Amino acid sequence: MSRIINFARLQVGKPYVFGTSGPNSFDCSGLTKRAAAQIGLDLYHGATTQWNRGTATGPPERYGYFDKTGPIDTLPNKVAFLFNQDKTAAKLTMAHTGLYDGAGRVIQAGGYGGKGVHDNPLDRRR
Questions:
Q1: pTM
Q2: What is the pLDDT of residue 21?
Q3: What does DSSP assign to residue 98?
Q4: How far apart are CA 81 and CA 101, in angstroms?
Q5: How confident is the model at residue 51 (pLDDT cuts 50, 70, 90)?
Q6: Exposure on the CB side of residue 63, measured as CA atoms within 13 A
Q7: How many angstroms separate the CA atoms of 118 and 106, rounded?
Q8: Which of 46, 47, 78, 116 satisfies CB 3.0 to 4.6 Å to 94 for a cystine?
């Protein structure tokens, strides 16, 4: 799974552009989509779609990533896909996604303050 994180870290510093999945810019789900592709996962684009549908290559549980939820330190994998729920939406909508490296850091793409792709401690807001 280090290929996912290694790919994501190589993208740090690239700009955020909504609707893109590289190679020169990313939005949050575009980054997770391209990172997951490094191990053969074909994720859909869009945080909510990734949460609801998982992969285009097979059922999410085949890969063991989308079948467990809970506090990050209780999850069994070294890499986790993080999703933030939009609590203002009328139905379940995921507003953001990123990658947890299993060692206390999150790699994510965000347009907040022009950050683009960045690597931060888990306890820091995006």
A1: 0.76
A2: 94
A3: E
A4: 9
A5: confident
A6: 21
A7: 8
A8: 47
Distance in angstroms (rounded) separating the CA atoms of residues 99 and 5: 7
Q: Convert the pLDDT of each residue in 15-27 to its tens digit.
A: 999 999 999 999 9
| Max CA pair span of the chain | 37
Q: Report yes or no: 109 and 24 within 8 Å, Cβ to Cβ.
A: no
Contacts of 15 (CB under 8 A, 6+ apart): 24, 25, 114, 116, 117
Q: Is the peptide bond before 60 cis (omega within 30 degrees of 0)?
A: no
**Six token digits for residue 107:** 């790699």
| Range name among 8-12, 30-34, 80-84 with the lowest pLDDT average | 80-84
Phi, psi of 98 (to 5 degrees): -160, -175
Parallel, antiparallel, or unpaired for β 116-121 and 94-100? Answer: unpaired
State the DSSP code for 105. Answer: E
What is the arithmetic mean of pLDDT over 103-124? Answer: 83
Question: Quick one: pLDDT at residue 84?
Answer: 62
Q: Is the pLDDT of residue 109 over 60?
A: yes
